[in-house]
Amino acid sequence: xxxxxxxxxxxxxxxxxxxxxxxxxxxxxxxxxxxxxxxxxxxxxxxxxxxxxxxxxxxxxxxxxxxxxxxxxxxxxxxxxxxxxxxxxxxxxxxxxxxxxxxxxxxxxxxxxxxxxxxxxxxxxxxxxxxxxxxxxxxxxxxxxxxxxxxxxxxxxxxxxxxxxxxxxxxxxxxxxxxxxxxxxxxxxxxxxxxxxxxxxxxxxxxxxxxxxxxxxxxxxxxxxxxxxxxxxxxxxxxxxxxxxxxxxxxxxxxxxxxxxxxxxxxxxxxxxxxxxxxxxxxxxxxxxxxxxxxxxxxxxxxxxxxxxxxxx
Length: 313
Prior knowledge:
Elements: E1 16-19, E2 23-27, E3 32-37, E4 42-43, E5 46-47, H1 55-74, E6 82-84, H2 95-101, E7 105-109, E8 112-113, E9 116-121, H3 127-135, E10 137-138, E11 141-142, E12 158-159, E13 162-163, H4 176-183, H5 185-207, E14 211-223, E15 228-232, E16 241-245, H6 261-269, H7 282-300, H8 304-311
Antiparallel strand pairs: 1-2, 2-3, 3-7, 4-5, 6-7, 8-14, 9-12, 9-13, 9-14, 10-11, 14-15, 14-16
Helix pairs in contact: 1-5, 1-7, 4-5
């Protein structure tokens, strides 16, 4: 069932904590937050003027699927921040606001956020391929000679963190040792090992469903009361990952994708890369939405309507 495209949430009845390229975060209580995922889409660090049908709902429900269905079994002991997809009746929201938030909002615990993007790369592509061609390294880590574009790293996935930049600024690729100085000696290895374990589990799960998770980025927080690392934010979505169709995969070239690479390629072909005030054509909107929806259905085994119906039970 088609819904209107939500490019701005703008809840007036709750305190706004932060607004990112895609998400708006509101204070729900002293210990919880309301994370709302809009249908906005960004590419090359620029937000497009128009959004993508159902994108926010798809990202939210994919995250929920990983956190509550897949990862608990495959990564025992994993802690995450998600409490519920349903907005509690205690929040002062209008019926229209509640309907707009359906399927695109998460109630989560508040945690102290580690200011790094915990990126895991299984394949050499994007900025890692560009760096490798120039220096023979990826995030400053030496790599074997002779690698092909989009080849799997011979030694398995690697941890390649970046800084977590404020909105409007670019993240900076850093080495694991630089990340260690940022997050602290006590937590650095735990974050790296957890990121790698989640990626490996997700890669195996997705591959069985025809998707290669080429790389992805995680965010982690600290439960200070229990001194535990907690997985936060969106998880293994087409926005935070590169998803490739396994049936079409071949190293040595660019890959087809289920993510916003299609949009990036269109922007580049039109001479619009990195430019402000750009709107997608209706065809690009539809093609991008279809790719996100295809990934959702492959990963969850459900249609979007089936997943949304579960929220009403």
